[in-house]
Amino acid sequence: MILYHGTNVDFEEIQLSKCRPNKDFGQGFYLTDIFTQAQDMAERRFAFESIGAPIVLQYEFDESSLLGEELLIRRFEGVSNEWAEFILQNRMSKGQRVHDYDIVIGSVADDGVVLQLNLYMQRLITMDMLVRELTYHKLNNQYYFGTERAIKYLHRL
Predict the structure, then answer these.
(1) Worst-scoring range by mean pLDDT, 3-17, 25-39, 47-61, 74-88?
(2) For residue 105, what are the β-bridge partners?
(3) What angle do CA 72, 73, 79 make, to 5 degrees?
């Protein structure tokens, strides 16, 4: 399968230490299987940082590796209590790793999702209300590669 990474700076080698902490699934390298989603991310990064240019990098990933035993994989199917709690743990982790997964696959928490997560953290809505609200947002796919072992399965095109 082909996965895409939107950025504003080209690079050859993925360096996990340069990835931002406190993201949905933790500090790691994020990709999507949706080209336009990666393109939108590249444009946002460029607009935010005002350096470089919007770029979409393409990687080949052998999906059969998701079925093997070499990697620890977590896959979220849609929005659920587990998905929301997992994102909350990672976003509140203060840069600390909160799980041992090599790869995590699931929906992106966009700005609307972040608002709902903040309402939940402030105890203004319940977990059931959070999940119900999140099901109405347009959710996109993201693939998190969080270990050097996982990165070895990505081949830049």
Answers:
(1) 74-88
(2) 75, 143
(3) 150
CA dist 2 and 113 (Å) reads: 26
Which residue is it, tokens 């444009």? 43
Q: Is the pTM of this model over 0.70?
A: yes
- Percent residues over pLDDT 70 in the chain: 92
Question: Are the C-beta atoms of 56 and 42 separated by less than 8 Å?
Answer: yes
Q: How far apart are CA 146 and CA 157, in angstroms?
A: 20
Range list of H helices, the chain: 35-49, 81-91, 111-121, 127-134, 148-151
Closest CA to 33 of 4, 73, 66: 4
**Which residue carries 């119900």 as its tokens?**
132
User: CA 46, CA 57: separation in Å to the nearest integer?
Assistant: 14
Place of tokens 């950025």: 7
Higher local confidence (pLDDT), 137 or 61: 61
Length of the chain: 157
